[in-house]
Amino acid sequence: MVKLDDLVQFAKTTGYIFQGSELYGGLANTYDYGPLGSKLKRNIKEAWIKKFQKETPYNVLVDTSILLNPEVWVASGHVGGFSDPLTECKNCNQRFRADQLITQHDSQVNADGWSLEKMSSYLAEHKVTCPNCGQSNWLPIKKFNMMFETHQGVVMDSASKIYLRPETAQGIFINFKQIQRTTRNRLPFGVCQVGKSFRNEITPGNFIFRTREFEQMEMEFFCKPGTELEWFKYWKSFCMDWLVNLGMKKDHLRFDDHRLEELSHYSNATTDIQFEFPWGFDELWGIASRTDYDLRAHQNHAAQNLEYLDPQTNEKFLPYVVEPAVGVERLVLAFLLDAYETEALDDGTTRQVLRIHPALAPYKVAVLPLVKKLHKEQAEAIYMMLSKHVDAVFDETQSIGKRYRRQDSIGTYLCVTIDHDTEETETVTVRHRDTMAQDRVKIKDLVSYIEERIQY
Ligand code: GAP
């Protein structure tokens, strides 16, 4: 697989992803998505909505606020417990997450859910060293709350304190009753949401893998208690299939099922889909069976009944929930790493090709006049025709060979070339990114030819 530094460079030079605020010297761990990256992100979100909501008739889509009543976060446990264990090297004053130091020290040890005392003893007993200066001298571990605080209105006192949401899920739970009432959906059904989340991470890094501002795609799937483990299994394979059907290589993916003792207190089953990043397998997608923990917490804290009335049995109960939650940027990174390839050609040269699924490719088709002076007008007309149906790009600079290579490297799925025969025969050449094979296609058939090949 490609090295992370090479991918960062590729993303920057092609217009996928830029360092955030670069003009002002940058802002650490922030990124801007350029002309290609913004389309890739949008396509990933659309592919997710297509499968999780549109093609799953009992699921619906919502878009809730980033700013919520702070009591939401008290009820959900985030104010009290959404923290990471923070420690500091006494020698160089660098700060780290204690659980990550432990896993870096021994990859077989997962300190998730350990008490602060247990982590402190481990650091001391195993003489875990500072990744920055190599000393082993740690300050006591503290809990560091990752919620981003801000203030609403003109007065900055404690009464005006609110939070940027650290997950999109709670916006769904607090609207459960209204969604169910207005859709009249019966259990089971899912509520999907795509939106920004914010976490004041202690150690962001690995490019866009862990950042403080990111987008999540979460679904809360509400079902009858007792059926949740079946649904958990169902959504687990649904998520994996979504990745594989979008071209991700199976051997870059695996499940990491959490053992009983690793489960959060509210969960009776959890797994992560891990992707093989350049630093090893790491979490891409979390799938958790969350019981009725969240609905019950809001029911109690808001003193409002959130029960569901089963129209068949007349029973009232709080639904159980299965939640697949994934980060859009993590998917961007995984899809780019998975697709980036340097291919050796028969003539001894190499070509850079991004073999990304056509549904995700920023451009489905590039329109290329063979000779700028002669074919520009016809090419522009074809571009205008195609761009009404698919994402297209017009490319007229440099030789045709160089343009093919450029489009291959950014993942454009097809290249349409307008040449000397186009006018007379009303045909164009269509070249395929993956095979480099070429077809001659009638202009009138071009849209359906392309649409058939980019179906997902
Ligand atoms: N509602 C459950 C929840 O938010 P999570 O495991 O904390 O669960 C779900 O987050 C997914 O969101 C992760 O698997 C990851 O893909 C993404 N994610 C979480 N924190 C992130 C961060 N700081 N930067 C980028 N993506 C993140």
Q: What is the strand and helix layout of this fold?
A:
Blueprint: H1 4-14, E1 17-19, E2 31-33, H2 35-54, E3 60-62, H3 70-76, H4 78-81, E4 83-88, E5 95-97, H5 98-105, H6 116-125, E6 142-145, E7 148-151, E8 161-164, H7 169-173, H8 176-183, E9 189-198, E10 213-223, H9 228-245, E11 253-257, E12 269-277, E13 280-291, H10 293-302, E14 308-309, E15 316-317, E16 320-327, H11 328-339, E17 340-344, E18 350-354, E19 365-369, H12 372-387, E20 392-394, H13 400-410, E21 414-418, H14 422-425, E22 427-432, E23 438-442, H15 446-454
Parallel strand pairs: 3-9, 19-20, 19-21
Antiparallel strand pairs: 1-2, 4-5, 4-6, 7-8, 9-10, 10-16, 11-12, 12-13, 13-16, 14-15, 17-18, 21-22, 22-23
Helix pairs in contact: 2-11, 3-10, 5-6
Bound molecules: glycyl-adenosine-5'-phosphate (GAP).
Glycyl-adenosine-5'-phosphate binds at residues 167, 169, 199, 201, 210-211, 214, 216, 218, 283-286, 323, 325-327, 329-330.
Describe the overall structure.
This protein folds into three domains: 4-80 and 151-335, BirA Bifunctional Protein, domain 2 (2-Layer Sandwich), CATH 3.30.930; 83-145, Herpes Virus-1 (2-Layer Sandwich), CATH 3.30.40.230; 363-454, 3-Layer(aba) Sandwich (Rossmann fold). The model has no long low-confidence stretch (mean pLDDT 96). It has helices at residues 4-14, 35-54, 70-76, 78-81, 98-105, 116-125, 169-173, 176-183, 228-245, 293-302, 328-339, 372-387, 400-410, 422-425, 446-454; strands at residues 17-19, 31-33, 60-62, 83-88, 95-97, 142-145, 148-151, 161-164, 189-198, 213-223, 253-257, 269-277, 280-291, 308-309, 316-317, 320-327, 340-344, 350-354, 365-369, 392-394, 414-418, 427-432, 438-442. Helix 2 packs across helix 11 and helix 3 crosses helix 10 (293-302). The strands form seven sheets. A seven-stranded mixed sheet has the order 3-9-10-16-13-12-11. The longest helix is centred in the N-terminal third of the chain and has 20 residues, at 35-54. 34% of the residues lie in helices and 27% in strands. The protein is globular. A hairpin with a 5-residue loop joins strand 17 and strand 18 (350-354). The chain has 15 helices and 23 strands. With 456 residues, it is α+β, with helices and mostly antiparallel strands. Glycyl-adenosine-5'-phosphate is lined by residues 167, 169, 199, 201, 210-211, 214, 216, 218, 283-286, 323, 325-327, 329-330.
